[in-house]
UniProtKB/TrEMBL annotation:
Tree of life domain: Bacteria
InterPro entries xrefs: Cro/C1-type_HTH, Lambda_DNA-bd_dom_sf
Protein known as: HTH cro/C1-type domain-containing protein
Domain HTH cro/C1-type: 8-63
Coiled-coil segments: none
SMART domains, alphabetized: HTH_XRE
Lineage: Bacteria, Pseudomonadati, Pseudomonadota, Gammaproteobacteria, Methylococcales
Organism: Methylomonas koyamae
Amino acid sequence: MSPFSHLLQAIRASRGICQSELSDLIGYEQTYISSLETGRKGPPPQAFIDRLAKVLNLSADEHGQLVEAADASNRKFIIEKEVPLDVYWLFSDLRKHQLDLSPFQVRMIREFILLKETLAAQPEYPVQKIRRRKNREVHM
């Protein structure tokens, strides 16, 4: 199940409406709603998301979550031309192993990728100079 499928199903369930009611409200076939919720269809166009948000009176936050979930649910991935060679190999490895990655491995890969953002968000602490003791003769 894709992020969009999961979120669409959760929003519909939270409103207490069935797929056929939702399809009548937004003007799409019930089979299309079902295909979106089960992940048989890829993410819908922006017009669908906007219509859904308007008809269900979704908050700006919920609308944003739907847009983000649709983007995360995109099954096609385009590698930019300017990336280093190792990035191609990284995506090749991910493509080959996507079905056998454990949840821990996925979490670690995501955390490592987001590490740069996490570090950038950390406050910088000023470097404090270490005070040296003055050389004194020790009397015995």
